[in-house]
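Incident log, support desk, overnight shift.

02:14 A customer reports that sequence design results differ from what the structure should imply. Their input is reproduced verbatim below. On-call engineer (initials T.W.) acknowledged and began investigating.
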């Protein structure tokens, strides 16, 4: 098995790619792959080696580091607010086009062993979603909860919406014990959420110090106690 694959529990794997990760959850009759990465891994081959079941994809959002291998699978689920961006930016011309299906706030993805509730969590992108497994007390968080760099510049980023999302998650943090983010350290605990709220509030208030980003990007880097925001006043 590749070193990029870590078995977390029965019917649950994380797949590590440079700078991003995916998650595979197996049910009795089908399996769910959360995001498809940068495209540097033979993801379809890896997933087929883990489960013989048909696999559908759920995109937490449609930035390119989460969708590069989407076309290798038959069915994609995402929030409708992400679909236009994905159709124009995420699809690869000339390749097969999987079936696009909507996910809404409150939808439940039932995989027998797993029952994930869809949470709409805009801010990083308009249709960012998270997946909450209440019985197993875990949250698959995409990019919004992490201790690395949260991208808040470019198309679709919205700092006020992010702040509302973080406050919503703070009110729900008694519903989960473990957070599975797409980037940086993994797993995390809900203790990070209040720090992200304070950081986002300080960023909005102009209280964080601007630093040059580590790479050539049209933004500044603003570090708070628990993470960093890459931001340029929403432009």
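02:41 Re-run completed on a clean worker. Output:
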């Amino acid at each position: 098995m590749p070193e990029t694959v870590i078995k977390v529990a029965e019917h649950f794997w994380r797949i590590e790619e440079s700078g991003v990760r995916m998650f595979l959850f197996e049910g009795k009759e089908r399996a769910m792959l959360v995001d498809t990465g940068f495209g540097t891994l033979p993801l379809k081959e890896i997933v087929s080696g883990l489960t013989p079941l048909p696999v559908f994809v759920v995109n937490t959002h449609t930035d390119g580091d989460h969708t590069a291998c989407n076309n290798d699978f038959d069915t994609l689920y995402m929030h409708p607010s992400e679909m236009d961006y994905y159709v124009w930016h995420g699809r690869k011309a000339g390749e097969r086009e999987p079936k696009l299906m909507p996910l809404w706030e409150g939808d439940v993805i039932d995989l027998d062993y797993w029952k994930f509730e869809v949470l709409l969590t805009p801010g990083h992108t308009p249709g960012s979603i998270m997946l909450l497994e209440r019985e197993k007390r875990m949250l698959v968080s995409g990019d919004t909860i992490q201790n690395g760099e949260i991208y808040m510049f470019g198309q679709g980023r919205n700092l006020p919406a992010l702040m509302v999302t973080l406050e919503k998650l703070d009110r729900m943090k008694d519903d989960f014990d473990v957070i599975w983010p797409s980037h940086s350290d993994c797993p995390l605990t809900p203790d990070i959420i209040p720090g992200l709220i304070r950081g986002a509030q300080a960023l909005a208030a102009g209280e964080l110090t601007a630093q040059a980003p580590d790479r050539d990007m049209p933004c500044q880097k603003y570090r708070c106690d628990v993470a960093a925001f890459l931001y340029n006043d929403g432009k």
